[in-house]
Amino acid sequence: MPNRRFADGEVVMGRWPGSVLYYEVQVTSYDDVSHLYTVKYKDGTELALKESDIRSQSSFKHRKSQSSSSSPSRRSTSRSRSRSPGRPAKGRRRSSSQSREHKDDKKKTIQETIQETNLALLVLVFLFKPSENNTRRYNGEPDSTERNDTSSIILEQKLKPDLQIERVLEQYSLRSREEEKKKEEIYSEKKIFETIKTIEKASSKTKELEFGGRIGTFMLIFFLPATVFYLLLMCKQDDPSLVNFPPPLPALESLWEARVFGVFLLWFFLQALFSLLPIGKVVEGLPLSNGRKLQYRINGFYAFILTAAAIGTLLYFQFELHYLYDHFMQFAVSAAAFSMVLSIYLYVRSLKAPEEELAPGGNSGYLVYDFFTGHELNPRIGSFDLKYFCELRPGLIGWVVINLAMLLAEMKIHNQSMPSLSMILVNSFQLLYVVDALWNEEAILTTMDITHDGFGFMLAFGDLVWVPFVYSLQAFYLVGHPTVISWPVAAAITILNFIGYYIFRSANSQKNNFRRNPSDPKLAYLKFIPTATGKGLLVTGWWGFVRHPNYLGDIIMALAWSLPCGFNHILPYFYVIYFICLLIHREARDEHHCKQKYGLAWERYCQRVPYRIFPYIY
């Protein structure tokens, strides 16, 4: 085994990858297999460096002292070479005084020459250059100011000989060596600063593309809306079997109605108005890359209460809420069109956003990819945060309203005085999920959607179309395909849903409370692995059971939402299949992101917690 040159804990100088700059680092460990040193920079960054990229601090200090000590000897050598060894010291003093007098005479000569040249130039300029006064004379205007203007120019030139001498001194390099060294130092500092800025700008670009890169994101822009419309059309069929693909397509003119689009706009801006009301507390989000913290008003639950009151008022005045069911496809088309327009606006405005406000995952430089994933991290109109608003308000609350409309439509179509038990379970389970999200609204500020992902077509379409129209698929299915379940089966499904909810809520609460205040005495029982970023990775509680326990709770709840629809068709279970695929993708993305962010600490965490979502399975 080769000998180590640097010991653990030793402070050395490490070269920053891709540059020639060295920074002070501390050696934390050494890998005997790869022969790489793990070093920690002052900002907490941990990197693996080769031994050739590390130097001791003494070598830097030695070079500095050597250069400073050698400069006097050079000066003395240059002096000794300029003197003739055969001349006496007195003669040498005379020659130096003579040289100084010669330099003074040279300066005076230069000054006189400059003054004479200036006078000659003034005469030439006056004779041959058409000045403003000459133009006036040619146009027949009075020229009484010519003589005054010329005399003032001459006076001004006479009063500026020092400036001309200064330029000549610069031309012949007659400045002192100290001034030149200062200029060289300033220039070198500027070059280093520009190099660092170039490296930072290049490193901020998104290098690893998700979702199949440019081609994949281009296809998803069309595939996602097509999937939503296909699911809704299938639910309308008497036999929503996969064998009956493709479903009969409606006429294009029947998919659009201006009144429906107006209702959707009214809903969107009503929720925006509720979010701007000065109720609820104002909290700060997590620090951004520039250290700044954005402020958010937490009033989602109040907006839900106001929405419930508005819907109750409409029902009291006998407004037909099942209008949503009758025009469900048209509402989906209106929401998709609005999300596309919003996405275009978001991308256009992001082109003027500063570099530090761009999303880490949506700054690839490719138009289609950045348009899909989101180019700007937190687009705001004043204090109104567009991404934060769309995450919880119009889509999530709209999901509950759509479920209620499906419940009323089932009662009307089947002439029931009470909704079916299956419909009650689906509405209750999903209502609990939405109310929980709004009650714990502050927890969303620590999710990757807010801290990492930009706001583009992916989130705009997901928040405004996918969530309200796909998540309500079970309720929409039950309207046309009623399913009867017994009370024991309903009780078993309810228990399953609450198990998933308990895992989901308790895991998220542990994570959010620990991120907000790791030193909270209530969390003293939690053990964690420290990282170079200053954050800790929990290895006890739910996060010591699997790496993503919140995803496990999500999948269990999704299954409980689909079971009331029975087993006649696989369509109601699309949500479960989609949710598993989505969470596995998110889990893979989280794994990659955490490995880059936490380095060796994440590897130790994975060894401690080997299972990702499903214990003893995956």
From TrEMBL:
SMART domains: TUDOR. Its main location: cytoplasm. Residues 4-62 form the Tudor domain. It is found in: Cytoplasm; Endoplasmic reticulum membrane; Nucleus inner membrane. The chain crosses the membrane at residues 211-233, 258-279, 300-319, 331-348, 459-479, 485-504, 525-546, 566-585. GO terms for biological process: cholesterol biosynthetic process. Residues 76-95 have a biased composition (Basic residues). It is a multi-pass membrane protein. This is Delta(14)-sterol reductase LBR. It comes from Haliaeetus albicilla.
